[in-house]
Amino acid sequence: MTTNREWVLAERPAGEPDLDCFDLQETEVPDPNPGELLVRTRFLSVDPYMRGRMRDAESYAEPWDVGDVLRGGIVGEVVESASDAYDAGDLVTGEGTWGDYAALDADEVTPVDPAVADPKAYLGVLGMPGRTAYFGLLEVGEPKPGDTVVVSGAAGAVGSVVGQIAKRNGCRVVGFAGSDEKTSWLTDDLGFDAAINYKTTDDYRGALESAAPDGVDVYFDNVGGPITDAVFTRLNLDARVAVCGQIAHYNDEEVPTGPRKLPQIIAPRARVQGLLVSDFASRFGEASERLGKWVASGELEHRETVVEGLENAPDAFLGLFAGDNIGKQVVRVSSPAE
Amino acid sequence: MTTNREWVLAERPAGEPDLDCFDLQETEVPDPNPGELLVRTRFLSVDPYMRGRMRDAESYAEPWDVGDVLRGGIVGEVVESASDAYDAGDLVTGEGTWGDYAALDADEVTPVDPAVADPKAYLGVLGMPGRTAYFGLLEVGEPKPGDTVVVSGAAGAVGSVVGQIAKRNGCRVVGFAGSDEKTSWLTDDLGFDAAINYKTTDDYRGALESAAPDGVDVYFDNVGGPITDAVFTRLNLDARVAVCGQIAHYNDEEVPTGPRKLPQIIAPRARVQGLLVSDFASRFGEASERLGKWVASGELEHRETVVEGLENAPDAFLGLFAGDNIGKQVVRVSSPAE
């Protein structure tokens, strides 16, 4: 068996992270303990929330220390099994490392079925982002038929699923995204009613008045910043805001300032709620079953942006903040034929 | 019957209102139509939300036009009845005018029982502010025994009731108020566990760390501004924020800015919700019954600050923004013996 390579946190980023924050180290391929699987990574997920783990501050996800191996969702092939539950050759998904190989507890992975979708989709629409969209929209956003649902980061892994589920529920759906290629994907392929390219639009509020003329009933926010400021001026009575991400602010070193929103939510009696998918863990089976069915039938579109090679994982991560990805950003670490 | 006097909106305030915004006019004492009561005002309520009605902007309460008679909650004595429901001499409460007399629809007033409390309490603890506290805390704040509940504007008409109901529900209660007299009232008479004088404290966050060492489970916000900024840094998992008022911002001419709060509510999955008491109108009977019982038994303390004379009603209103009131601010317009 070859050596393993793993990315570690070389230094904590100050503001925007760069490649100096990452160091690729040669390590040993682990031996699986009883109950564990040795998994060779096929695809690694990079996600905006990882920026928070690079900070020296307690939050929902434990902070990484300098020198720690970076972790994240992976899809991989079992190369050695010390568990009755899986055999060598099985494809699984779970939390692994930014590395070639990882030993994972068999109880903490789930099977990947290539008949349902390409394995990398298990890091996106069929993984944590898809479940975040599913529960965040349905349980926090509570869309009703006829509602106008606005999504920021709409062409991302979460937002693209949010919009499609909202359409299934009979809503008018408006997305903010950062390129014409993205907005075209939203309206032409995913069925969004309107999409706003926030990089070529100055007047977000004006754009919303056209795209969401009846106001906003549900806002699913992945971004924050000026997009969110505009949406808050258009909230309808009893509006619901699901705050899933605030990527515009993840690299801020100081607490960011902006228009105060509490004075804006009294008249519409809006409900603004922070969202973490782990709160719905007891219902992940329900989400996986429904999302899998929609994906397999082609009713739910998905896309992944692939960066090739473990050595480019930091670039893939940094690209999230530049909006390089359409759909889910993954890193291809190995291929079946290798 | 004497002439009537009524305050009208003389001009819209720009920023902080002043006496030039108000004009006291002599008008006719109205004749009650069938179903109406002619009511002589005993007490008039001035409330922060009225500032919003002076603005030329649609909101939950219709804006007043320049020249309009100002309206508000009153307690008064029926001097002439064109309804079977009330007789001359009855005390009632309802929405009247900033005036000596008003004709009110008998269906839209409720009786005042001086055996339960002094009539002016029907504009505070037994009126709209008390019901706001009751539904806002219980239905939006959802306090559980052992929770830490923080209240801004804690010595006001709403906040003082919020804190006492939270204590009844087994919570630790911390209030922000603007004078030592107010904080003493909260801790010595109302049973608050701690109170912070925000006018003599620089470090609100530090004061909260001492007063609410286990963090904040429920925040009932009447004020906004730096107090609210500090509380948002201390929200616990699943915290609830009831946004009842934002008096610190009512005189702002531009949209106020401050620390962004959406990034702060993801980790605690906090729920932040705008609150208007009118949404609970179908349950006002329940609130009145319970609040009346607690007041009559002395379990629920209340206080009113009285400004004497209809001619001083604008001063009473302006005093709200300076924090002149302890408990409910009312104006005495007439007395029984007059």
From TrEMBL, chains A, B:
Species lineage = Archaea, Methanobacteriati, Methanobacteriota, Stenosarchaea group, Halobacteria
InterPro entries reported in the protein's UniProt record: ADH-like_C, ADH_N_2, ER, GroES-like_sf, MDR_fam, NAD(P)-bd_dom_sf
Signal peptide positions (record): none
Q: What is this protein called?
A: Alcohol dehydrogenase zinc-binding domain protein
What GO terms are given for molecular function? Answer: oxidoreductase activity, acting on the CH-CH group of donors, NAD or NADP as acceptor
Q: Name one Pfam family in it.
A: ADH_N_2
Q: Which SMART domains match?
A: PKS_ER (SM00829)
Q: Where is the Enoyl reductase (ER) domain?
A: 17-331
Keyword Transmembrane helix belongs to the record:
no
Q: Which key words tag this protein in UniProt?
A: Oxidoreductase
